[in-house]
Fold:
Amino acid sequence: MTSWSPASWQSFPIKQQPTYADQNQLAMALDEIKSMPPLVFAGEINTLKNNLALASKGEMFVLQGGDCAERFQDCNEAAITNKLKILLQMSVVLCYGVRKPVVRIGRIGGQYAKPRSNDFEEVDGKKLPVYRGDIINSYAPDPEGRKPDPDRLVESYYRSALTLNYIRALTTGGFADLHYPDKWDLKFFNQAPSRDRYEKIVTNIRDAIAFMESLGSQNKSLSSVDFYTSHEGLILGYEESQTHFVEEFNGYYNLGAHMLWIGDRTRQLDGAHIEYFRGIANPIGIKVGPSTDPRELLQVIKTLNPKNEAGRLVLISRFGHQKVKNLFPAIAKAVHDSPHNVVWSVDPMHGNAIKTEDGVKTRDFDAILSELRDTYQIHQQLGSVLGGVHFELTGDDVTECTGGAAGITPQDLDRNYETYCDPRLNYSQSLEMAFLISSMLGQ
Structure:
């Protein structure tokens, strides 16, 4: 194993990176980010790692969710509040149902980049560079706006900082107080099919809190929650600029997020992403999909976690409901039979993208639920632990995924289809999914 530094990845082959026309401008942008304060504290990262170690043993459960790709325009009070609301509500439902503490991790405060299958696309007869997320270029089909712009890296840092600042204010300032879970409701929740079940859980939680406090118990944890941030560590120059040596903990930490993950397209054993990630102390997610070779995955695990540290690695399976039964068992067994400590999570979103007859990209609620159930059953059969779930979702009333109790059809998709990349579960579908997961795991 060669020596590591935050910049050693630059000597390795790399994928999914933009090509900047002005390298001096790029260097100036990265230097500016490097000079700015960290976004998170290394002690928080270590606490998350300890929680993930408990999740690997089935003593906690991980809920990770948020946008496919954040947009700069969503760095505002309403969008951030709504995303936090749905994740808090889902976590309450899960905590109540599975009787375990829930680790809340948002795909937020830095999830501005997206890997793409092609470098170019055709829009209105014009060949344009593909949109790679607001951190790189503009979604508008404009030739100039689609050029990678280094200044967007700096803007991503500032928008992440603003987002994280507001999240901290909400989670510690009383917004997450379990004494008042009814305050989390969004205006359209009154029509949500799962409202009655949610109200019953809310009532039971209130009764339990009242009973404990009548005995003289005052638990400060009821008035605030721990909330962690994550994003795909795709643009390595940006990630390197936020990597610091922390003397207190004697290690390098990426202080731009609590957790980062490596996507299905960038987990090559000899690639730059594995090289960068092996040197940071953060918890690391690895997307595991149909192209995964079990033997190579074990090598990746060993490379990223040579000390076999508990809570260090989260394997996030994403096969699609039609492939999970055939492809996942061999991979899950290989890891289960190995000595490696990992947390297993399931992302039932990314393998289930389809297009309607009109060419609109969507996902079906039943397919998402099917992959989740099959994955859980595979873990049960192996004696393995499903430690968490990973969703692309939003707290807004969008119509991007079909199905669910709300009955969204392909014809409804154009009513409020807002995503720039992949379709997300809306508020009602997300909460319904939380109830179903709670029922499944709480059996």
Q: What stands out?
A: The CA atoms of residues 164 and 431 lie 23 Å apart. The first helix runs from residue 23 to 35. The chain has a mean pLDDT of 92.
